[in-house]
Design goal:
- With about 90 residues, the protein is an alpha+beta fold.
- It has a single domain, classed as RelE-like (YaeB-like fold, 2-Layer Sandwich).
- It contains 2 helices and 5 strands.
- A hairpin with a 2-residue loop joins strand 3 and strand 4.
- The longest helix is centred in the N-terminal third of the chain and has 16 residues, at about 20-35.
- The relative contact order is 0.22.
Length: about 90
């Protein structure tokens, strides 16, 4: 079971206080905790970096990195589709 860190996306989540978005995000976190590569959650690998993935919930994208050595999933960015991949 992986440990999940959402410290960097918690500000985004607090800004978007939609109960359904928070519910879906938490639900997907419980599934990711068991298997961070589960593809039925609309997860895609980022082509730029190894071990980095994006999770899609509606128009929002949540980027995370998987550290298999220390059994950790770290979410590092969240935004809408149009802004998530811009530097």
């Amino acid at each position: 079971m992986y440990k999940i860190v959402i410290r960097l996306v918690s500000k985004f989540l607090s800004k978007h206080k939609w109960d359904k978005l928070l519910f879906l995000f938490k639900k997907r976190l419980t599934i990711l905790r068991d298997d961070p590569y589960k593809n039925n959650l609309d997860i895609k690998s980022l082509s730029v970096e190894k071990n980095r993935y994006r999770l899609r919930i509606w128009k929002y994208r949540f980027l995370y990195e998987v550290f298999d050595e220390i059994i950790l999933i770290s979410f590092f960015k969240a935004d809408t589709r149009g802004w998530i991949y811009k530097k």
